């Protein structure tokens, strides 16, 4: 469904800076065509809920010379643009989150751009562009392969760890470092 600024403005409650937010969302939608604005209920960490504007859908990300559509959800609070949106990657059933430098275990996006958000300097389009560029370097999720996943974990464990015995009869676990040398010891 094509959205224009007036349609988006009518979706927003009066607590928002409606004209400004509607314009930014409209511009974001012209650059990222697979996002959709909607009002939905956001649940905060403390369990409280609030109806917020969200942009949900996918953004194209270039990784290893291929384009992937990464599912995301941006929550725009009513005090936007003073505060940054709350951003998540939203894996489908056949995907899993890759927790890392910029992604928490629950899929929250933790980019420096969000933490250093400045009204007047930051906007939705720039945020989405930063996300797409960052996800191209640090993918936030991957496809699940259940039957191979367990086997590869076991092979990795078998390759990297050895249970060795000490002269006193106790055992320890030796983990190989990336260069193949023996590293950390853990007593068993």
Notes on the structure:
The chain has 188 residues and is α+β, with helices and mostly antiparallel strands. 21% of the residues are buried. Residues 151-165 and 170-188 have low confidence and may be disordered. It contains five helices and nine strands, in the order H-H-E-E-E-E-E-H-H-E-H-E-E-E.
Structure at a glance:
The protein is α+β, with helices and mostly antiparallel strands and 188 residues long.
The helix fraction, in percent, is 25-40%
- Structural class, judged by helices and strands? alpha+beta
Our estimate of the beta-strand percent is: 25-35%
Q: Averaged pLDDT, please?
A: 83
Identify the overall geometry: globular
Placed side by side, the strands forming the largest sheet appear as 1-2-3-4
Q: Give the oligomer, counting copies of the same chain as homo and different chains as hetero.
A: single chain
Major sheet description: 4 strands, antiparallel
By DSSP, the count of extended strands is 9
**End-to-end CA span:** 60 Å
Radius of gyration, in angstroms, nearest whole number: 22 Å
Can you tell me the residue ranges where pLDDT is under 50 for at least 5 consecutive residues? Answer: 151-165, 170-188
User: What order do the helices and strands follow?
Assistant: HHEEEEEHHEHEEE
Number of helices: 5
């Amino acid at each position: 469904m094509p959205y224009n600024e007036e349609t988006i403005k009518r979706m927003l409650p009066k607590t928002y800076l409606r004209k400004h937010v509607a314009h930014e969302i409209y511009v974001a939608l012209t650059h990222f065509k697979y996002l959709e604005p909607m009002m939905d209920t956001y649940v905060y960490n403390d369990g409280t809920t609030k109806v917020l504007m969200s942009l949900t859908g996918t953004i194209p990300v270039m990784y290893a010379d291929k384009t992937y559509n990464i599912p995301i959800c941006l929550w725009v609070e009513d005090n936007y643009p003073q505060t940054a949106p709350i951003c998540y990657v939203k894996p489908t059933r056949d995907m899993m989150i890759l927790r890392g430098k910029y992604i928490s275990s629950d899929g929250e996006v933790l980019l420096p751009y969000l933490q250093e958000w400045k009204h007047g300097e930051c906007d939705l389009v720039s945020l989405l562009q930063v996300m797409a560029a960052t996800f191209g370097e640090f993918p936030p999720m991957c496809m699940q392969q259940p039957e191979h996943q367990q086997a590869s974990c076991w092979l990795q464990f078998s390759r990297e760890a050895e249970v060795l015995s000490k002269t006193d009869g106790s055992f320890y676990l030796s983990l190989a470092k990336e260069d193949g040398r023996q590293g950390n010891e853990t007593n068993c």
